[in-house]
Amino acid sequence: MLKVYGDYRSGNGYKVRLLLQVLGREHRWIAGDGLGGEPHRTNDLAGAEEPVVELECGSCLRGANAILNRLAAGSALLPRVPYLRTQVLQWQFFEQYSHEPNVALARFIQLYQGLPEARREEYAACKARGYKALKVMEQQLRRTPYLVGDDYSIADIALYAYTHVAHQGGFDLGAYPAICAWLQRVARHPRHIDMHD
């Protein structure tokens, strides 16, 4: 059975948990504190970026998006057509470099730190860059129901994680109707699970 180490309430942990739920993949979650505490895990995983998946063979995978690609292989969530698969990767890189560092960090500063005075300038910069990332998503989702065309994929899982809680970072999604419709489509998947379930 797969073992997953980390905090499933964090956006990166939630990505993996949502994928496993959608795939119906049996696993054991070994929880840790995503706010800085060490998860309960074996010594060889200490210091690794959360979440960490330990495969049945004993090998370990680190990094949420790498894990999504490995676990979704062979499923409908990872397209077999090379061009579409490349688009999935493009959205995952976008999530890691343009979306998550801004949307997730603004959420962390506001929700978990209470928007301290010392971080207000950083928070404002995150919000400005985060809105730019949301605009890119909005433009794509006006053209297609999911980020990579007509089908739900791990690109959607990767970006859903922090987008659906963006309001907790002070983002107003009211001006992004295509994103709002997409969030509803993702949440209607029959095997969907909420971040805090």
Automatic annotation (TrEMBL):
One Pfam family from the record: GST_C
Q: Where is the GST C-terminal domain?
A: 81-197
- PANTHER family in the record: GLUTATHIONE S-TRANSFERASE-RELATED, HYPOTHETICAL GLUTATHIONE S-TRANSFERASE LIKE PROTEIN
According to UniProt, the name of this protein is Glutathione S-transferase family protein
Q: Which domain of life is it from?
A: Bacteria
Lineage, opening ranks: Bacteria, Pseudomonadati, Pseudomonadota, Gammaproteobacteria, Pseudomonadales
SUPFAM superfamilies from the entry? GST C-terminal domain-like (SSF47616)
